[in-house]
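Interim report to the steering committee. The following record documents the input for Flagellar biosynthesis repressor FlbT (152 residues).
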Amino acid sequence: MSTLVLELRQGDLLVVNGAPLRFRNRARVELTSRARFLFGKQIMTPEAADTPAKRIYFALQTAYIGNEEERERGLELARDLIAEFQSITTSALVREMLESALVLAQQDECYQSLKLVRRVMQHEDAVLRAAAEPPTRAHPVPPSGEGAGAMA
């Protein structure tokens, strides 16, 4: 196994095999064996899991870096949340990505699973943003009295 070197800044959080480590100063860490880990922006807090896709990510995150009992519950919750999301989405691509993410998680490839769900989160964010924006017109309609009278 090759080593992995992580550069972490003061205040960064690294979770290794379920143990959270907060860095008080800048550090360079070398992982020399296989470990379940996430760091920095990869880690989602429970409070940040405020959309369906983010809740799936949080459940899979728990299945990846939690202790044995938490991992089992996280995977079960992810199954339920994925099934629910798949039943309401209109995107075949999202359904396929979620199915792949679940298969990867069940094969204990949770890091790859999380990468897929991050893509689903980006899609969800774009859909929610589009739904929140007021509709715009491609061609504005001139107020009445303009346009037709000017050509006469």
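Strands lie at 4-8, 13-16, 19-22, 27-31, 37-39. The committee is asked to note this result when reviewing the revised timeline.
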